[in-house]
Amino acid sequence: MAAHGARSRGGRRPTLEEVAARAGVGRGTVSRVINGSPRVSEATREAVEAAVAELGYVPNTAARALAANRTDAVAMVVPEPETRFFAEPYFSDMLRGVGSQLAETEMQLLLIFAGNDRERRRLAQYLAAHRVDGVLLVSVHADDPLPDLLAQLEIPAVISGPRSVEETLPSVDSDNYAGARSAVEHLLARGRSTIGTITGRLDVYGAQRRVDGYRDGLRDAGHEVDADLIVAGDFTEEGGHRAMAELLRRRPGLDAVFAGSDVMAAGARQLLREAGRRIPDDVALVGFDDSAIARHMDPPLTSVRQPIEEMGRAMIDLLLAEIADGRPAASRGLDRQQVVLPTQLVERASS
């Protein structure tokens, strides 16, 4: 009777949110139960199944599949050239997290590059044909038109890191600000006083937040922020090499560098060696990501660990919840979900 009453209220079907509220769990958890994921405790599964039965909830996934509108595929879209994807561990770690989480579902994963105008046009046509049920957007710059296209097409989407503080899509990111602060605090505690930073591309919000953390870490310790010690990189090894050369030109006496990625730190290390600077004796070096590069550098690189695989898994959880509900959160007028995972400084010999 309860199920009948819930369904017949104004002819409106109960929503995923109502099931989540009744079961006392999040939307993503309800989605995992509905999609048969084993990553749910038995008690939670029973609570969700009871709420589904009480409310008479029919998942949109089932309804859409019956209508043959489902593709049972999601796309991971990387608006970068393929060369950058294969050069940076960030992307492979993200893909590993996404793939491991999707392996528990019936969904297929497509990897799509959109690093130039031709690839973007082809992607726009592909998405307009609704050939995927949802999209994961990885490494998006502030002026990228893709998120707006997805919103216009009403395709569920989750973004890895917001484009700005006003981000409208659900997003998953690491705590870039706190990670950068911890790097600066570590270097100051080691007695370093002239700390430069090599930033990532500043049209990426996460890179901006790392610079904010760097600045505040210095200010809060009573140090002036010297604009000459901040040089823009581009997340590539070559960019790290160039930026390190510029830092040494501006401030030859610097004694520490915080690089906004391990890849850029590798470029900086090469330049420091060419300039005859010893690490860490003359210049301490800290990276960001804690990728395999950090562990295999000589000396091993102190780095801020961001849980990239976990970020990939969290992105899939959010996306499956969007897909299960049938429409993107933005089109339902819901508050966007922005997940921020903690970072951790991993100390090694370079600092």
TrEMBL record:
Keyword Glycoprotein: no
UniProt cross-references to Pfam families, sorted A to Z: LacI, Peripla_BP_3
Domain of life of the native organism: Bacteria
Record key words, sorted: DNA-binding, Transcription, Transcription regulation
Keyword Ribosomal protein recorded: no
A GO molecular function held by the record: transcription cis-regulatory region binding
Location of the HTH lacI-type domain: 14-68
Protein name as it appears in the record: Ribose operon repressor
UniProt lineage: Bacteria, Bacillati, Actinomycetota, Actinomycetes, Kitasatosporales
Originating gene: rbsR_6
